[in-house]
Design brief:
Mean pLDDT: 92
Structural class: alpha/beta
CATH class of the largest domain: Alpha Beta
Low-confidence stretches: none
Order of helices and strands: EEEHEHEHEHHEHEHEHHEHHHHHHH
Number of domains: 2
Shape: globular
Largest sheet: 8 strands, parallel, barrel
CATH topology of the largest domain: TIM Barrel
CATH architecture of the largest domain: Alpha-Beta Barrel
Number of helices: 16
Radius of gyration: 20 Å
Number of strands: 10
């Protein structure tokens, strides 16, 4: 049974960056966001076993599943290869996910973060593609696919071997089209040529495409003064044929309001707007940035408790605004409650789980030179 594109909302609610209060998910805030999203006629929720340290699926149960009829929403979650140490773990994790979310079946289920190496090898070793089809036959999964962070060559290989795959989730935004690691344009082309529905993650690149230097923002505002900067990134992806749903990891009601406004009366980019995005992409790429999307996969296992995405955000901000004292103040506050960049012991745990394949240990050394050296001189 293929996915009916007409039933999938263009905007999906990603539950990876939920609002928090005092270090835990802010349940009341999440409920308000869920209600606002559902009232707008949208109903696709994306979670995963590892999001929010394992609490995202439970948050979905409390804010969504317990409060809305099952047939009124669609929910997706994912099998994490790095948690599978033996075949029995697959069934254990799946049953735990059913219990966490409080549902009897998942509308969409994904093999999480397929790429060359351990993740893909694990899925092959334990025959997870066959397992997914068995779960679908049992009615526990309605649609089966995977999220992807590997090479175009691997994507083609998997699709050739598994024509049963119904959809693929990829990172896609205007900045990563030519990124030699992400290669999102090539991934998009492969899927679109095969007519495989595409779910987009990181359309605003973890917030990186939501704000820029005043000169860049002015170019957007001169063309569409009423629209937010983030809306351009969402409209770019939403204008591409074959894109089924675009996930946004919304963490505040203001983001929800803006995104709903963008998609409620969706306007694809005009030709001159595509040209403008291309010009601005060149401007952005002229300033070197660390390509972190703040997914926080690297944080849970860090023995030094370094808030790596926040360290990189500070470095990126200083590169754009070298004279802005607020970045250094932000970092001072950060290291009062977490590790410093220079605390990195080079264990490599972070690099093994990074979807962007960043050389995190060497980047932290660079960050330490920028951020920690003045404090110790």
């Amino acid at each position: 049974m293929s996915i009916d594109l007409g039933t999938m909302p263009k905007l999906g609610f990603g539950l990876m960056r939920l609002p928090e209060k005092d270090g835990v998910i802010d349940h009341e805030h999440v409920c308000r966001m869920v209600d606002k999203y559902m009232r707008a006629g949208m109903n696709y929720f994306d979670t995963a076993y590892i999001y929010h340290g394992g609490k995202s699926e439970t948050a979905a149960r409390e804010a969504l599943v317990k409060r809305y009829p099952r047939e009124s929403f669609m929910i997706a979650t994912k099998l994490p290869a790095w948690e599978v140490k033996k075949k029995e773990d697959i069934e254990r994790i799946f049953n735990e996910q059913l219990e966490r979310t409080g549902v009897d079946y998942f509308d969409l289920y994904l093999l999480h973060s397929i790429e060359e190496g351990n993740n893909y090898d694990t899925y092959v070793k334990y025959d997870c593609f066959k397992w997914g089809l068995e779960k679908k036959a049992q009615g526990k999964i309605r649609h089966f696919g995977f999220s992807f962070h590997g090479s175009p060559e691997l994507l083609s290989e998997i699709l050739d071997a598994h024509p049963e795959i119904e959809f693929v989730q990829i990172q896609l935004n205007y900045l990563d089209r030519t990124n030699p690691v992400v290669q999102s344009q090539r991934l998009y082309d492969i899927l679109h040529e095969r007519n495989i529905p595409i779910i987009v993650m990181e359309p605003v690149r973890g917030g990186m495409l939501a704000s820029f230097t005043p000169d860049i923002e002015e170019k957007f505002k001169a063309r569409q003064p009423e629209r937010s900067i983030a809306s351009w990134a969402l409209r770019f992806v939403g204008s591409l044929p074959g894109v089924m749903t675009i996930l946004s990891g919304m963490s505040a009601e203001e983001q929800m309001d803006d995104n709903i406004s963008t998609f409620k009366n969706f306007e694809p980019l005009a030709d001159d707007e595509f040209k403008l995005v291309n010009e601005i992409t060149e401007d952005i790429l002229s300033v070197p940035q660390i390509g972190c999307t703040a997914c926080k996969y690297c944080c849970d296992g860090c023995p030094q408790k370094i808030s790596i995405p926040d360290v990189f955000r500070t470095v990126n901000t200083l590169r754009r605004y070298p004279d802005d004292w607020r970045s250094k103040n932000f970092y001072s506050g950060l290291v009062s409650r977490s590790g410093k960049a220079s605390d990195c012991v080079g264990c490599g745990q972070c690099e093994r789980v990074c979807p962007q394949h960043l050389p995190i240990t060497s980047l932290l050394k660079e960050a330490a030179q920028i951020l920690d050296q003045p404090a110790t001189s």
